[in-house]
Design brief:
Blueprint: H1 2-22, H2 30-39, H3 41-58, H4 62-73, H5 75-99, H6 104-112, H7 117-122, H8 124-133, H9 139-148, H10 153-175, H11 182-211
Helix pairs in contact: 2-3, 3-4, 3-5, 4-5, 4-10, 5-9, 5-10, 8-9, 8-10, 8-11, 10-11
């Protein structure tokens, strides 16, 4: 199973590298990359959203994509494109959770994260919110488990979009702020840490309530 997963990821990365090479983007020359983005705004936006949609297959962390959006497109546009990409990628997870309802894959995931089952059953919506915000919980797994537990699709999608907005904006802004005041950067990082700490505290509280 692990070997098959490795082969799939390797093939996916090979395709991405070939596409980038064909487009002449396999370079560390920022002027070349910026020139491509300026001359192909719509195409670059589609590529970025596609990267978001494929990030699970490519094993790319969502935080990296948020940061990259800010670097490539600026704070506002990077934020909007990242929210679109996040929504699409998590909708894919919702669909997969529905299609894999009686599969071995679902059972393996549930066995691996069996300690989360009581929380999902008792606090599905709150679990999804904290699963997205809290740094110690894998967001994609939280979305998969929440979808598997039968969360409403519309509410699921709205939660994914709305809850991701603050952190996505902060990471997008962080991506373009390195040439700005160091105090602004430190403030953003402190805010991200504070949100993570508060969500972690709430996470521990609902864990205790679920097992009590």
């Amino acid at each position: 199973m692990k070997r098959k997963k490795f082969i799939i990821v390797a093939i996916a990365w090979a395709i991405v590298i070939l596409v980038l090479k064909y487009m002449g983007l396999l370079t560390l020359d920022l002027d070349t990359i910026k020139g491509f983005l300026e001359n192909n705004e719509k195409y670059a936006a589609i590529m970025f959203v596609s990267l978001w949609s494929l990030r699970m297959l490519l094993l790319i962390p969502g935080v990296f994509c948020m940061f990259l959006g800010g670097v490539c497109f600026g704070t506002l546009k990077g934020f909007v494109l990242s929210i679109i990409g996040i929504t699409i990628s998590e909708i894919i997870i919702y669909v997969l959770a529905s299609l894999l309802a009686d599969s071995d894959i679902k059972r393996k995931i549930e066995d691996k994260y069996g300690n989360l089952k009581p929380i999902v059953e008792k606090y599905n919506y709150k679990f999804l919110v904290l699963g997205i915000v809290c740094p110690v919980t894998p967001t994609d797994v939280a979305c998969f488990l929440s979808a598997s537990a039968g969360i409403n699709f519309i509410k699921y999608t709205l939660i994914v979009m709305i809850v991701n907005m603050p952190m996505t904006f902060l990471y997008s802004y962080l991506g373009v702020s390195f040439n700005k005041s160091i105090y602004g950067i430190l403030l953003i990082i402190a805010t991200i840490i504070l949100i993570g700490a508060l969500s972690y505290k709430m996470w521990n509280e609902i864990k205790k309530e679920s097992y009590s």
